[in-house]
Design brief:
CATH class: Mainly Alpha
Largest sheet: 3 strands, antiparallel
CATH superfamily: Winged helix-like DNA-binding domain superfamily/Winged helix DNA-binding domain
Number of helices: 8
Strand content: 5-15%
CATH architecture: Orthogonal Bundle
Length: about 140
């Protein structure tokens, strides 16, 4: 049974998942943005760099699949990251598709930012009990 079915119209406004996710996302992204500012990278760019690092050589389609992002949005991010020297593009000759890998400066950036990312993550997760942390991650996966 949904929340608004239990408590009426006011509950549906208070428990609007869109609003709650929007607010939570804003708070989380702001913490990461503030922490990454001195490194010149946006919070929305680091997950893309992490995916590229994991795959070594990865196409935009593969990045889109892993990050659940639109290709057009990724295309712009990848252009900026390439301009910043964090990634290199290559053409996969048998498919004529463009693929990306981290440059040396991209690898350095990912390593420099790792402790900062973990600090912010610990700050956020530290507000939750261990059970709540597991539940949060489980619910996020379930909603994807």
């Amino acid at each position: 049974m949904a929340i608004n079915e239990i408590n009426g119209k006011n509950a549906s406004r208070l428990y609007c998942i869109n609003l709650q996710m929007f607010k939570t996302s804003h708070v989380v992204m702001k913490l990461y943005e503030d922490a990454y500012r001195e490194y010149g990278i946006k919070a929305t760019q680091l997950p893309v760099l992490n995916v590229i690092e994991q795959f070594d050589l990865v196409t935009i389609k593969e990045i889109a699949d892993v990050t659940a992002s639109e290709r057009s949005v990724l295309s712009r991010k990848l252009q900026v990251m390439e301009k910043n020297g964090w990634i290199k593009s290559e053409t996969i000759y048998d498919t004529r598709e463009k693929a990306f890998r981290l440059s040396d400066s991209g690898k350095e950036l990912v390593q420099k930012i790792l402790p900062i990312r973990l600090k912010v993550q610990n700050q956020l997760m530290g507000k939750l009990s261990v059970d709540e942390q597991h539940l949060l991650m489980s619910l996020c996966e379930k909603l994807q």
